[in-house]
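Bit of a strange request maybe. I'm writing a small parser for structure token strings and I need a real example to test against, not something I typed by hand. Could someone generate the tokens for this chain?
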Amino acid sequence: MSNHRFFTADVFTDRRFGGNPLAVFPDATSIPEQALAGIAREFNLSETVFVYPPADGKNTRRLRIFTPAEEIPFAGHPTVGAAYVLAATGAIPLQDGDTSIVFEEGVGAVPVRLRSENGKPVFAQLTAAVLPQIGPPAPGRSVLADMLSLEATDILGGMTAPQAVSCGLPFLIVPLRERAAVARARVRTEHWESGLKSYWAPQIMVFSRDGELPGSDLHARVFVPGLSVPEDPATGSAAAALGGYLGARDARAEGTLHYVLEQGFEMGRPSRLEIEVEKHAGAITAIRVGGACVMVMEGSLQLATS
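Reply from user aminoacidic:
Good idea to test on real output. This should exercise your parser:
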């Protein structure tokens, strides 16, 4: 039997059993390729991340990210969570204040900044490797309302109409009038399969601009039925896409825009994601997503050797 060490962490939260749980294998070099997908299905978390030495020695590590359904090129909570776990376990040495690292992912090189206090990581922030890309026109509001178990009047239109955006993983951003509508949203699988499954952005984020907690700007839920994640409690890749959506509609042409996003409340896993959008001469030049993390478990997975 071969043993493979793993950790789990809760990402985008400062307390255990909140945020988005993540499994991290800090050294996956000896895990057979054919076992990776099965391990992810066994954990059955939104994502499981396998860590390898970098292909380019200038970078820190290479990540492979799996949902229970398939491998994906980029995801925010595995990127932030893997950085935190590697730093918390001493695999990545920390400098005083901030430590900058780079992960190799399917989408390209992803910079991450770690902030530490008393030698321990307290915050991790990724910079999206891909600036916002806009997809084809979204389905109409009546189609989306049927899909989300809502009324068409719950969905905003005009300049704030739904739009597909990707910063490495595409999401359909659907703005709703109020937090109560976000809470009511339920994906009707048959409508999703007929109206969105084959669309450029089959993943859905619904959000409103009335946060539940003081200091929150936005309240959101994310549905990813195509990747066997009916609802995700904290989604960094969707938060990056949302930053692109909001930044393009903000009249400010220069500086850093800040948004605090709530997610996972309806699932009993409250999460807090901090979004920064850098703009210059009216154009978005960078998007960053970060938050706190906490360690939860350590264990060893045994695989039978052939």
